[in-house]
Amino acid sequence: MKVFIIAGKAGSGKDVVGKYLYDLVESANQKACILRFTKPLYEYAQNYFGWDGNVKNKPRDLFQTLGYDIIQKKLGKKYFLVNRLLEDISILKNYFDIFIIPDGRLIQEFEYVKKVYPNTIIIKVVRENYDNGLSPNQRKHITETNLDDYQHYDYIITNSHKDKLYQEVQKIVETEVRENE
């Protein structure tokens, strides 16, 4: 079993890379599952703030406004987001070979996942020309995330052209999935 965390700033193409990875893994006759750090964050927004699901970015805005430490203290758990994610993996690992997490912005979680699942691969997606077409909210996320300080990426992909991006993801699958069948 392998876990792929796809890290990247807002608008970098994490979801696109996750979808490519999913399709290629499935074509290699491996069962893949896409999970998200944000799933427990949405549950938190529902349970603690009465979020009804109408405003899509409300949970992430709560996270940005309150801060990781405040939410963590309120729940009384360290690494509450990743612990929920790891619970999901432990339940689903009997059914899936590969887990893909395409929203890794929480650097403090990367190594924690690697400790629990040593077969974790961390991919950083970098988008060229970040200023082109980003909303003010996306620009805010870019300035608040410190992914550039993290040094232990297994792969770094430059998201410049769709075909090139697909080829880079294909190389990762060939290296990490197909040779380990």
Structural write-up:
It is built from eight helices and five strands. Strand 4, helix 7 (136-144) and strand 5 (155-159) form a beta-alpha-beta unit. The protein has 181 residues and is α/β, with parallel strands linked by helices. The protein has a single domain (2-180), classed as Rossmann fold (3-Layer(aba) Sandwich), CATH 3.40.50. Helix 2 crosses helix 3 and helix 2 (38-49) packs across helix 5 (80-92). Strands 2-3-1-4-5 form a five-stranded parallel beta sheet, sandwiched between helices. It has helices spanning 14-27, 38-49, 58-66, 68-75, 80-92, 107-116, 136-144, 162-176; strands at 2-8, 32-34, 98-104, 120-127, 155-159. The N and C termini lie close together (10 Å).
Question: Briefly, what is this?
Answer:
This protein is of the alpha/beta class.
- State the CATH topology: Rossmann fold
Helical content stands at 40-55%
Main pleated-sheet profile: 5 strands, parallel
Strand order of the largest sheet: 2-3-1-4-5
* Shape designation: globular
Strand elements, count: 5
Spell out the key features of this protein.
single chain, 181 residues, alpha/beta, Rossmann fold, 5-stranded parallel beta sheet, 8 helices
